[in-house]
Design brief:
Strand content: 5-15%
Structural class: alpha/beta
Number of domains: 2
Distance between the termini: 63 Å
CATH architecture of the largest domain: 3-Layer(aba) Sandwich
CATH topology of the largest domain: Aspartate Aminotransferase, domain 2
Oligomer: single chain
Bound molecules: pyridoxal-5'-phosphate
Number of helices: 13
Helix content: 25-40%
Length: about 375
């Protein structure tokens, strides 16, 4: 029986998102034990969640009850954390879900969306899944957004402009004046601040003055909750109501809600972990800078992008993987010479530097 015709025609040439593999699969790839895998490929938090999360999840008794579709308590908690009213907050199963919701709410078939590569791949992936088409405006040589080119390429059917600060994978941040300029164009501007806690900066205060600005955040990175999937968006209540009206009713699972509440009671510890990660980022940057064939790019996130000369980035990636160290290699033309290293614990960073030094045949 032919069932192909049952599926959406516009998905026939959809390029799937390339996700990172779990440690078990990486262990097989690198031919190492799972316990020996050093996973530095998904910007995860090497310190894990607050210990309070495990205790709170273990002692909760209501898992047989559906979660609150209005997300009342989670929105109140996040509102207090961010410093906005709770009717400005919507939570999602990761920031990924909010990206999808924004596009589901705005894209009619064929509408266009702007992103600025190299950047997070979910913007183009979700645009294509939702029947839109992406207009990619490459960043300049310093990885800043080419604002005049964004302006020039806006079409009548352009609904959304995605910008990321700090940008993944380049690590740089966007200026307030650039965001203000983009906001003038009358499209939805989605400012993805998934790594804001590592940069110590945010432009969330602009949301009050700009009904077309959506700021995205996540508990995946600084809270160490990537596996429980909890992200959120901050926006004018008018957009928020649109998103609330199309989301799945129980999109936030109870475990994520409990974990977030426990995390927000342990801010001191979580912020100490962020500081440790930032300190390691600075140390790794210095180490990479002292290597002859490596150029690291200054980063405000929990990762560092670097490029290589005299050796292929893919070869570096493969040599590291065979030692059990997994960094991110992006198989796209604009990042062919680059790898992205997520910041891990000091011991893992030392191993990475030793491994890279061996691969490059250098002593530092
Ligand atoms: C810029 C950016 N936004 C969003 C996400 C996804 O966040 P979440 O885990 O909350 O879906 C990531 C994950 O790597 C990211 O790099």
């Amino acid at each position: 029986m032919d069932i192909d015709w049952l599926f959406r025609r516009d998905h026939s040439d959809l390029v799937p998102y390339t996700p990172v593999l779990p440690p078990e699969s990486l262990a097989k790839l690198g031919n190492v034990q799972v316990a020996d895998v050093i996973k530095l490929n998904a910007n995860e938090n090497p310190y894990g969640p607050s210990p309070r999360v495990k205790a709170a999840l273990g002692s909760y008794n209501g898992y047989n009850i559906y979660p609150d579709p209005d997300q009342s308590s989670i929105r109140a908690l996040l509102a207090e954390y961010v410093g906005v009213p709770s009717d400005y907050i919507i939570a999602g199963s990761g920031a990924d879900e909010i990206i999808d919701l924004v596009l589901r709410a705005t894209i009619d078939p064929g509408d266009t969306v702007i992103d600025c590569p190299p950047t997070f791949g979910m913007y183009s992936f979700s645009t294509n899944v939702n029947g839109g088409s992406i207009i990619s405006i490459p960043r300049n040589s310093e990885f800043n957004i080419d604002i005049p080119s964004v302006h020039k390429n806006i079409r009548d059917n352009t609904k959304v402009i995605f910008v990321t600060s700090p940008n993944n994978p380049t690590g740089n941040i966007i200026s307030e004046s650039d965001i203000n300029e983009l906001l003038q164009y009358g499209r939805l501007v989605v400012l993805d601040e998934a790594y804001s806690e590592f940069s110590g900066s945010t432009l969330v205060s602009l949301v009050h003055r700009n009904p077309n600005l959506i700021v995205l955040r996540t508990a995946s990175k600084w809270c160490g909750l990537a596996g429980l999937r909890l992200g959120y968006g901050i926006m004018d209540p008018k957009i928020l109501q649109k998103l609330m009206s199309i989301k799945q009713p129980y999109n936030i699972n109870t475990a994520a809600e409990i974990a977030l509440a426990a995390s927000l009671e342990d801010l001191v510890m979580l912020k100490e972990n962020v500081e440790k990660i930032v300190a390691e980022r600075i140390r790794l940057f210095d180490n990479l800078s002292s290597m002859d064939n490596v150029t690291p790019y200054p980063s405000h996130g929990n990762f560092i992008l670097c490029s290589f000369s005299g050796i292929g980035a893919r070869d570096v990636y493969e040599a590291m993987a065979s030692s059990g160290i997994f960094v991110r290699y992006f198989n796209v033309p604009e990042l062919r010479d680059y790898i992205r290293i997520s910041i891990g614990i000091p011991e893992h960073m030392d191993k990475l530097v030793d491994c890279l030094t061996n691969i490059l045949g250098q002593t530092i």
